[in-house]
Amino acid sequence: MLYAGRMTVADSHRAVEAVWRIESARVIAALARMVNDIGLAEELAQDALVAALEEWPRKGVPDNPGAWLTLAAKHQALDQFRRRDTYQRKLQQIGRDMELRQESAEAELDEALDDHIGDDLLRLIFTACHPELPAEGRLALTLRLLGGLSTAEIARAFLVPEPTVGQRISRAKRTLADKRIPIELPPPAELPARLASLLEVIYLIFNEGYAATAGDDWIRPSLCQEAMRLGRVLVGLMPAEPEVHGLLALMEIQASRIPARTARDGSPILLLDQDRSRWDRLLVRRGLAALRRAEELGTLGPYGLQAAIAACHARALTPEATDWERMAALYRLLAHLTPSPIVELNRAVAVGMAYGPERGLEIADGLRDERALREYAHLPAVRGDLLAKLGRAEEAAAEFRRAAGLTRNVRERDLFLERAAALCR
Amino acid sequence: MRYLVTLKVNAQPDGPPPADLMEAIFKLGQEATEAGALLDNSGLAPSSEGARVEVSGGRLTVSDGPFAEAKELISYALYEVRSKEEAVEWTTRFVKLHRDLWPGWEGESDVLRLFGPEDFAPPA
Predict the structure, then answer these.
(1) CA-nearest residue of chain B to A218?
(2) Mean pLDDT of the region A130-140
(3) What percent of chain B has pLDDT over 70?
(4) Is the pTM here over 0.90, yes or no?
(5) Alpha-carbon distance values, A95 to A79, A82, A92, A98 (Å)
(6) Which stretches of A84-134 are DSSP H helices?
(7) Looking at A217-291, which runs of residues are DSSP E strands?
(8) C-alpha distances in Å from residue B87, one per residue of A55, A192, B4, B79
(9) A134/B contact by beta carbon, under 8 A
(10) What is the rounded distance in angstroms from the CA atom of residue A331 to the CA atom of residue A338?
(11) CA distances from A184 to A26, A92, A187, A358 (A)
(12) Cα(A396)–Cα(A381) distance, rounded to whole angstroms?
């Protein structure tokens, strides 16, 4: 490293950790292919990190740090296997393989990394997001293996105790080992379902961050960045999958609103009330480009459609300029693809804006008997809004009061009560 | 966090940049994009094609390039990363390519953080 002379120990450790953040997923992925065990691959990679923390501050960061880490981990693996009798069989299997290549190990490793790295990473992602694992295990394992986040960072991000995250990760690794889940790409027939499971994990990570964009702990909102980063990595690995672009588009367009969606006092600002000049133009531009790519690749799936809906807002310079008709049509497609009362409720809003409150209310009224929406504050809130637009103030106020009684979010409750009060004036 | 990385050149050998360098830069850019770190980048045309608008002593002046500075700003990159060290690491890789593949080239990159929503967070 060029400026090593002026660095303190803490500085150089941070520099090594930055390399780790960049390289760890690829190192673990390459090792997982060699040892066919994700838990072991991660341990070995961690050992390599420890070696790097010792050596790099003295000797400088090597030219190809990823290959250095992988090679160091490989040596660790050999040492370990030689020591442990229980791993005798694995030693034979892996040792033979490794000794064959030992001579030109480094050059070959570079090549191997370049050749396999895309597939290795994909295999690792698909395994970490395997449907056999519980959702929370998939989330933690993905952040740990693909994001290079520490257990402590994941715990802070999800507001759970550190040991809990540790348990989720070790349990997930054990499940993978016990069920002998191979580290491989899903067979073509399973790809759609497996890809859906993977995209779901990334979107869950995103939403966990998006739900927390207020407050002083920025590790939670930084989950949005992490999810978008994973989305971008995935776009590079699976450029032909429209839904991969669709999910990235959806996340980038939604994230573009982060600077505008919270007032200085922390209260939420509804989309139509947001100061659009504060939307992040770079993310809007990137999100719309990703959506275009998804559209070019074929028919939009659920993520692509949601991105297309979000794009109706992103393209409008003012709320009045929103193409509500297009949005209502997109919601109809989405409801067809993934029928859900919540999608239908959103369609009611779009239809209300496009074709008048009466039409919207018809759809919303049809949802009143939905069990899934019985406790859902936004059903009465949407009805309240449509009723208010029709001049039925009293009914509208009652709906907003009902919404206030249902929500668990204090700031949202205040918002509903304010609207109810305003209608009674 | 977003970082803007500029590249300024102090001295460079005559002639166009070596093809090896251009290829390596392209490859690194691709790698950084696929790592989800590089959001945007571009080379910049010589300042002789640009202009400068300046306020000095209450007077506004517009002048055409080239600018008088010894260092010419030749490219920028915009990264989204998790720490300053990560931005420095990508930048180091980028500058190292120039050192290794274009002998005699001298220049510098500045790594500057962009303000983000976290800088305007409501007080907790």
Answers:
(1) B118
(2) 92
(3) 96
(4) no
(5) 10, 9, 5, 5
(6) 88-101, 105-128
(7) none
(8) 22, 35, 9, 7
(9) no
(10) 10
(11) 15, 22, 9, 53
(12) 9
